[in-house]
Design a protein that fits this description.
By secondary structure, the chain is mostly helical. It has one domain. The protein is built from twelve helices and no strands. The longest helix is centred in the last third of the chain and has 29 residues, at 271-299. The radius of gyration is 20 Å and the shape is globular.
């Protein structure tokens, strides 16, 4: 029975990571529209799709209860608003980066994300970490410093993705809310702004939605599905798998994105990029080994 649960959890989590990894191909298909229009459509259709999921799974009553619980506390309300802003910023940076030829930089951001979460845990939540985990942070910082030195500019795409998603995770850790209900509330909060922006585009004839944009319209509607489905799958995986395995699977999506950026879209990957990735990969190896030793020590 336990093996069956682990197998089901691994399939769910792996499927989510693969979907996230190949999403750059999906967003590239939408590059006729601007990143902001894609973001607005994604917010709208994600809200619709997740609401339909809540209805289909008969969880609307739970949704209402969670909403009331959050709105009764101004601290929780502010946290939810913050989460909505952070995830929208993360989506915006990611879509813009993919459609502007920076897929390799997005992979650096998502490789760095778990290390950024560690740093937030140390600074904000005062969590204790082993020496190896602290060494991994230094190695990652050296990789980012290498990017700055080699390219003469701050890697705002990579750092923007890593920081926004790590902060988002930290806020959700404090908020403690069901993932699907959370993403539903977050999209509903940003929905009025997204809808107003799309109406503005429509009024000046610059939207890419409707009968005259048949294929693109379907892909924009599908953006809500590709947002919610991997989140559902990953949430199921988290519930069935040990966290150390979940953490390892989390490295699959940036690896797929890196390969897509280099092999499919021919983004540059020379010694300069390899130096940065070398530091970050080494940081992740040290981080993973440190986690494994920590788990063994606690279990012993």
């Amino acid at each position: 029975m336990q093996e069956t649960k682990i197998r089901a959890g691994a399939i769910a989590a792996l499927s989510a990571c693969v979907i996230w990894g190949i999403l750059p191909i999906y967003w590239k298909l939408l590059d006729e529209a601007s990143a902001y229009e894609i973001l607005a459509q994604r917010i709208c259709w994600a809200a619709v799709f997740v609401m339909l999921l809540l209805v289909a799974t008969k969880r609307l009553s739970l949704f209402y209860q969670e909403t009331k619980r959050i709105l009764k506390s101004w601290q929780r309300t502010c946290l939810l608003l913050t989460a909505a802003v952070l995830i929208s910023a993360n989506w915006a940076i990611y879509i813009w980066a993919v459609n502007s030829g920076h897929i390799v930089e997005t992979s650096i951001g998502y490789y760095t994300n778990p290390l950024m979460s560690v740093m937030l845990g140390m600074l904000v939540f005062k969590e204790n970490y082993y020496r190896g985990q602290k060494i991994s942070l230094v190695l990652a910082a050296m990789g980012i410093l290498n990017m700055i030195v080699q390219f003469g500019a701050f890697p705002w795409v990579s750092m923007g993705l890593a920081i926004s998603f790590a902060l988002y995770g930290a806020v959700k850790k404090v908020l403690r809310i069901d993932p699907i209900i959370g993403i539903c509330l977050e999209t509903l909060l940003t929905l009025p702004f997204a809808f107003a922006y799309l109406m503005q585009l429509n009024s000046i004839g610059q939207n890419h939605f409707g009968q005259e944009h048949g294929g693109l319209t379907l892909l924009l509607v599908g953006s809500g599905i590709v947002t919610a489905v991997p989140l559902l799958l990953f949430s199921r995986g988290i519930n069935l798998l040990p966290l150390n395995l979940v953490g390892f699977l989390g490295y699959i999506s940036p690896t797929i994105a890196l390969l897509i950026g280099v092999l499919l879209y021919h983004e540059p990957f020379g010694w300069q990029q390899f130096g940065t990735f070398g530091f970050i990969w080494l940081a992740l190896i040290v981080f993973s080994l440190s986690n494994r030793f920590a788990v063994r020590k606690i279990s012993a």
